[in-house]
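Researcher: Please generate the 3D structure of the following complex. Treat every line as part of one assembly.
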Amino acid sequence: MGIKSQIDYLPTPMRIIAAWCVNDESFALISARKYPAKSMFYILIFTYFYWILGCVIGFMFATVLDGDYTSLGFSSKALFIVLAYELIRKCKSFFVLALAFLISALSWIFVPDRFMLLVAVIGSLIVLLLAHKRRLV
Amino acid sequence: MILTIVLIALSSIFFRYFAMLVVRKKTPSLAMLQEHMPLLIIIFLVVFLYKGLDYSHAPFALDYLIAGIIAIFIRFILKNAVLAIIISTGSFMIMHDSLFKGMF
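Model: Done. Output below.
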């Protein structure tokens, strides 16, 4: 939504390419401050290709270097943990924080692994919209 | 195979463009969701990652738990997210690959 208002200034072909190139990192970068439409387009393009390039280089290294790198996968978990810590620190709404932990606990107990994320996100969306209607959030 | 990749790519680009067309106006409820959903999703992701672990057999996911605590601790003490990720991943690799093997 934050990106969309800026993307509207681009011509349609560039808009389609920009929509294709949106990823987590570019979204975070662009949401943080307002960029001119063209700069934003280049940010989207370059972050997308850095991502692809990183994957290709990583794959090439993994095939050349012999070894077990499975435990390196923890870095993504560590990233999520650190991001969660940052967001919890910045969160001003106790209701949202309590909701996050409550839904996490409930889905941990009652929902099978493969459906957990989906059920938790849909459940939290419904509760947040209902709470917003009752002026709780 | 190539057709599947092309179809996935086309559906992905169509869905994103469709989403951009649908969300034309920033209503108060959409703004509220935009503000609060990142926190909820990140917490769900962390919980989801920890739910999939094996707590019934050795090392009882202790390597994951300790490395997670180290990540938060380093972030809290040094106030540096990148360092926290690097050190916690390093400590996880040491625990996961050598320390806990044959310990239990």
